[in-house]
Design a protein that fits this description.
The protein is built from one helix and four strands; from the N terminus they run H-E-E-E-E. By secondary structure, the chain is mainly β. It has one domain. The longest helix is centred in the first third of the chain and has 6 residues.
Length: about 70
């Protein structure tokens, strides 16, 4: 689908948000029997938006979260 630039997207959010937070979650791939999601909160208060990779077992019985940014 192309490159994802969450910092750029966060900079284009309106100044007045009517939500506490804006989250973006996307299925990246299914790999070795687990679902791999990219998760970010569009919040620039720490300089860069936080990004995590979340891996969930195919039976949803196990999961792992890895901070990327």
């Amino acid at each position: 689908m192309g490159k994802w630039f969450p910092n750029k997207v966060a900079k284009h959010l309106p100044e007045t948000l009517y939500f506490e937070a804006v989250w973006v979650v996307g299925l990246q791939k299914v790999e070795a029997g687990e679902y791999v999601y990219g998760v970010t909160r569009l919040d620039l208060s720490r300089g860069n938006v936080p990004i995590w990779i979340v891996r969930i077992g195919k039976n949803f019985d196990a999961w792992n979260v890895e901070a990327k940014q």
